[in-house]
Design brief:
Yip1_dom, single chain, mainly alpha, transmembrane helix, Protein YIP, globular, 81% helix
Length: 134
């Protein structure tokens, strides 16, 4: 079921490209799309190489669904504008929500003794997306 993560990724890319300068809309859309899919693939490959028992597509699907809070904040940011004092706390909450949901998923895939090695790329993945929202 990769349709849900695809729709969320497209929504995030569209919302961020709407706020981008006119000459950078295509670059922002492409950048978001590539970062989401390659980032999810790299985090999944890392988990698999560390001995995780989850399938590749299942992990990519879960990581894609976990960007929902970030998509929600991107939607709110369209209406809020450039008010960083509103967007920053919302981005931190969305980052924590996405990370918490993903860490719970990864810890259930038998990575208990290598959890820090699997969680660091996951935090980095969501941090980059959250940074793009700011």
């Amino acid at each position: 079921d990769l349709w849900g993560p695809l729709i969320l990724c497209l929504a995030l890319a569209i919302l961020l490209s709407v706020r981008a300068p006119a000459d950078q809309e295509i670059l922002v859309f492409t950048g978001v799309f590539v970062i989401v899919w390659f980032g999810a693939a790299i985090v999944t490959i890392n988990a698999k190489l560390l001995g995780g028992t989850v399938s590749f597509f299942q992990s990519v699907c879960i990581l894609g669904y976990c960007i929902f809070p970030l998509v929600l904040i991107a939607f709110i940011a369209v209406f809020v504008g450039k008010k960083v004092y509103i967007r920053l706390p919302l981005c931190i909450i969305a980052f924590a929500w996405s990370s918490y949901a993903s860490v719970n998923f990864l810890s259930s895939s038998h990575l208990a003794n290598r959890r820090a090695l699997a969680v660091y790329p996951l935090f980095l993945f969501y941090f980059i997306i959250g940074w793009m929202l700011l």
